[in-house]
What we know:
Chain A is of the alpha/beta class.
Amino acid sequence: MTLVFEHSMKRPQRARHTSSVQKESAIVDGIDISGHWNKMYAPREITAYDPGALDRVTAIPGAESMGWCYQCGKCIGVCPVDNVGDYGPRKLFRKLQMGQDLINNPDLWQCTTCMNCLRVCPKEVDMIKIMPAVRAQAVLDGTNVPQELQDMFRNVAEYGNPMGESARKRVRWAKDLDFEVKDLSKAPQPVETLWFVGDYYAYHGRGNDAARAMARVFNRMGVDFGILGSEERCDGDSQRLAGEPGLFQMLAEHNIEQFKKHDFQHVVVSDPHAYNALKNEYPKLGGAFTVFHYTQLLDQRLERLRPLLTKRFEKKVTFHDPCYLGRHNGEYDAPRALLNAVPGIQFGEMIRCREQGYCCGGGGGGMWLDGFMSDHVGERLSENRVREAVAVGAEVLAVCCSYEVSRFEDAVKSTGNEGKLQVLDIIEILDHCMG
Amino acid sequence: MKIAVPLKQVPDLVEDLEVAASGTALDFDGLKMKLNEFDEHALEEALLLKEASGAEVVALAIAGAEADRMLFTALAKGADKAVKVSGVDANADNHALAQAFAAAIGPLGADLILTGVQSASDRDGQLAPLLAARLGLPCVSVVTGVQPQGKAVLLKKEYSGGVMAEFEADLPVVLGIQAARQTPRYAPVSKVRQVQQSAKLEDFAASGGAAPSQVVKMAPPPRGQGCKMLKSADELLAVLKEKGVV
Amino acid sequence: MGDILVVAEHLNGALADITFEMLAHAKTLAGQTQGQVVALLVGGSGEMTGQLGAAAKVLTVAADGNFNPALHAPALQTAVDAAKPQVVLVGSTSMGMDLASALAAARNLPLAAYCTQVTAQGGKILATSQLYGGKLLVTSDLGAGPCVAAMLPGYASADAGKAAGSPASEALPAPADPGKVRFKRLILPEKADVDIQAQDVLVAIGRGIGKKEDIAVAEELAKALGAAVAASRPIIDAGWLPKARQVGKSGLKVKPKVYLALGISGAPEHIEGMKGAGTIIAVNTDKNAPIFDVAHYGMVSDLFDVCEALTDKL
């Protein structure tokens, strides 16, 4: 019986048992090692459970790393869902090892793909690859996919946005501006910056506020920008992570086709999920463009921006690192540079910041699973985070992802902090300071 | 058991509907169409019957903007066959559609024909009874709950006020489905794309007749029938107080 | 020619309101066509015949008191052959759906469904249908007749279709029933936890509510108002509220003092259930929602903002 263990990031060899022979008498090199009734040379069971459950998962392409876990537990300490419930890769692995299925199980839908586990995992058990792969299987088989998620998929598939609103109403937010935004779908023209607005900026009330703020800031800064207008569709990243790679592909193909119609230097996105999609996934489908998150673009042009920030914003402000800008894409500084340029600001970090940022619960499909999650967690991730912001003495919780404004404002109300904590997109603060 | 499910495309009511310059028809240019929601329920009921007692489900659609999408989605959901019927405009009146569908369904030898009880564009009557008349079959409308019972089906017909009637109908019969037993399943785009690569749609050439009546006018209902628009919750509260309920 | 044939509807031993509404429609129409109003009563009682005084004549067909499409559809066709009316009025109802199109197809007659109005003008019958979720009114030319119009409930006064005095009645032979569709039993609804028909104020929710959990927002407002929560069909179909709370064509018809319609688009099936309310206040994010056509007051706004603001103030 040989056991080969490679101490590297490559896949370790599994212990292999050869079938054994039981002998009454065994003499090796003159030494009697005959078996006695209490010494049995037989395959010893490592587990009494059916390894099929684990094998079914690791057999799915993309989910192989689930089998690498050696139960150290570092992930549990940083898993945001375990903090308010009972979750984490180590626990999922152990359950699989004990024969409990993951595909037809509520456990499959609780992960927000925040990546805090992968950050600390010595074996690189990659939930960011595992969860979408296993979820895709469940969605394809129609196995107990939470209805809320199915309703969202249906809306995105039918209308190109999770709200189920008409595509024609994507530019409604721009009507109240006192200048015109270049809608490239109606009047194609070369622009320097193609601004990918995003669903929440287009259709959500608070997103509309941020969208108008962004347009005003770009306008004041002389940014030459245009939008795709009603031809824009959902970026698809959350849908990909929630188990619909086909839907993602359909959306990406459409958006890439739109991008290719126009003449621009770079794409700027409003939210980190679009950032992740455009930067890391769209190139795989033939759509490679230079992409910036809006905080990065403005940080690059900070010296042009700074003199325009004339009005003071004298508040105690803290910042929530969005998982998909921070941990996933390594950008922690650009948003901070912008906030620190705000005149009068008193900036303070939360305890769980930068790489250790605590997920708002919206990623990986979580945005559309709050009803489902209420059965599995003691409080919402966003509520836990809001309490932290209040605890560090913040009056304003600054964010730069459109999912978060909606989640945190909801959490402010449900934790009884209305009036104590204001939630603002960084762009709204900058717009305010421009008078 | 063989179940035929004719599917109809209708304008998506999420959109603003515009009347064409003629004043007697919809402006279909750029109008988003989708599968009639009640037909989706009919398909779901057919698939549930297939899962419960084994049946062959054949989906049909009139060739038009949505036909491929409706049919591949039906196959992705579990339908066994999909037939695209040509020869009539997919946006024609139900009389014409019924004629075309009847021609395609006739040769199938279906025991059960399920279609949505109604649709948003039923100016000249509902598809189910018109189709039944063409096929020479009985029809029961506003059906929820279909249960096979040998060579017949047990069904529930809804009246108003929550009253229902139970009927037993010999096969073959046409049923206008109001609602399936559960929310129609979602067909993942991943699955539909898979099906688009692997499955083939059958073609059927039919013909449709002219509608026995013409549209003389199409317009939005007259507005301003006294709906006073309020601007704030305070104004709403004032109205409630005025009506004496607060 | 010139006569208007009204197909009377009855359920569980009583004539339905739509019957009288159609008689009202028919009286006006008969004035224009210079004909008579004739009613058709299949499987009805002598008592019912006596209530159809607004008709000049009642054609009766003896049959079981419960509706059966396989019997009633051919009976209607027999009656049309006998009476030769210019216009046949059928209810745009569950029963009517099993009759109108079958008649139109069997006798190749023009048919207009979902009608709010039928008039005779210059020798032609014009019928106006409410289609596309109530977003458009479509007027069809049904020709000189005979033709069929399916009438939507709620567009004529039932009282205007009632009159004292027993009309003349004529019995028609019952058509042979091949027995392919057999009536088994009537299922009456269970006693409800809340009788929405007895409420002064109803807070009604529609698809705009989004998620089941968010119904709580409406329930809080209802509590603050001393009202009950009702809903349109999609909410009931999803199982979020019991059937007893459904307002609409296949639910209950309500006439509260105040009907607050939140996130309800105003599909005709729903309007049917609540247009009789004293004051209708609609809140919807879509300024073109058909509900605003029947509402007395309206707000283009997010229903959650309105609910929360109102609940706070109360």
